[in-house]
Amino acid sequence: MLDAVDLPDDIAALKAMLIASQLREVRKDERIERLEKLVAAFKQATFGRKSEKSDPEQFDLALEDLETAMAAVHAEDETDSAPGKRQPKSRAANRGSLPAHLPRVEEIVEPESLICTCGGGLHRIGEDVSERLDIIPAQFRVIVTRRPKYACRACTDGVFQAAAPARLIRAGLPTEATIAHVLVSKYADHLPLYRQAQIMSRQGIDLDRSTLADWVGRAAFELRPVFDALVADLKRSAKLFMDETRAPVLDPGSRKTKTGYFWALARDDRPWDGGAPPGVAFTYAPGRGGQHAERILQGFTGILQVDGYAGYNRLIAPDRVGPDIQLAYCWAHARRKLVEITRTGSAPIAEDGVKRIGELYRIEAELRGLPAEARLAERQARSVPLIAELRTWLTQHRARVAGKSPLGEALAYIAKYWDGLCIFLADGRIEIDNNTVERTIRPIALNRKNALFAGHDAGAKNWATIASLIETCKLNSVDPLAYLGATFNAIVNGHRQSQIEELLPWHHRTG
């Protein structure tokens, strides 16, 4: 609590302090409410009847994401504390142990000068020693930081010592490289935290899963500004891809899962030799409604390439308020419906349709990597006649095929989205399909077991933040481990918020 002598005499300054204090209290109340919900879910998952619990691996995944979400809230609370306010004592937790057999790499942090302010020389009187767990590929080691203490023999001006280096986890065991390793193992290699803890235990490193979850949650909090910068950069593009996929979300205390969705917003201008680097940003939403796409795309104007999901129609509704968006549709989805029919038996019409669409794809394969102008010219010369023939073919067969038959429904789908399917003929930047974003979202579809978030959006938000940066690294041929390590080092060394875009993955390219 501030003393009266610490308060400024200026009325405007006092008002500013009061407003800032009130805002901090509001944010604090919001965090308390979020924590209460997380704790309630944690207790239900932990102490609920055994008959209500899911299998052990899913249960462990749920708990670690709950703990990660809690840690992120704690980190936000610490950052939002009033300036000069004493930090509360950290909660008791197993911080881990560092066995003696691990190799030690010592670094000594000396003061800038060993000359006292009185002119005398400083002599060493002691030191502070701290140890943190560091990881390099396939090797654990301990970084020992020594900070010698010095005092002057000629006077009593005090003890001189270099300041302790900044850390991502204050007073914690891990180096920034260790945290990066844990994130990449969990979100890129799909290795849950409890399994990572088991791997470390074989080296004699005693760490609870909850300790690793705390590291991940705090790291996710620190990476959110970088993630926000990634989303903002993508939405400044003139053309993007979008897709969504189911994310089973474990409901603590229940043997069932509920369904959430990950929405992927992607950019890849390489097929038309564009200059913007590729990237993808995931956003979790509790549903699949078009309002979620509209919220994610707020501020974006341009071409959005999607599949035929009806929810996207909200983006082009006549009464919609917001920037104009033009939808380009996906020939892969149209072809897929015909391919499914050919797999059930003889289907000459469907086979003919697949062949016709395949001719368009053969042309596109030859045009990949050419400038947009060259692609457009070739499409006008070669693809436009094929599309005209395909339109005639579609009209003729729709008139002869039963509308409610599988083939009739497949043809109706193509007819419904015809204008959007043909937009690629008028713009060399547009792809023939939405496969670009489907490839980025495939890791989620293939690893749904690792997409369990204990029924809370907070855990999914952390997943989206970290996974977006890792997948964007992959798109730019950047090593996620090296990138995250360098990014954490930049953050702890006070990287300016105004220059946050410098921390986006494509700026980490080497060679």
Automatic annotation (TrEMBL):
Domain Transposase IS66 zinc-finger binding per the UniProt entry, residue ranges: 115-155
Domain Transposase IS66 central residues, every copy: 172-461
Boundaries of every Transposase IS66 C-terminal domain copy: 468-506
Transmembrane feature ranges: none
Region feature Disordered, mapped onto this chain: 74-97
InterPro entries: IS66_C (IPR039552), Transposase-related (IPR052344), Transposase_IS66_central (IPR004291), Transposase_TnpC_homeodom (IPR024463), Znf_dom_IS66 (IPR024474)
Cleavable signal peptide: none
Record domain Transposase TnpC homeodomain: where: 34-106
Pfam families given in the database record: DDE_Tnp_IS66, DDE_Tnp_IS66_C, LZ_Tnp_IS66, zf-IS66
Protein known as: IS66 family transposase
Organism: Rhizobium changzhiense
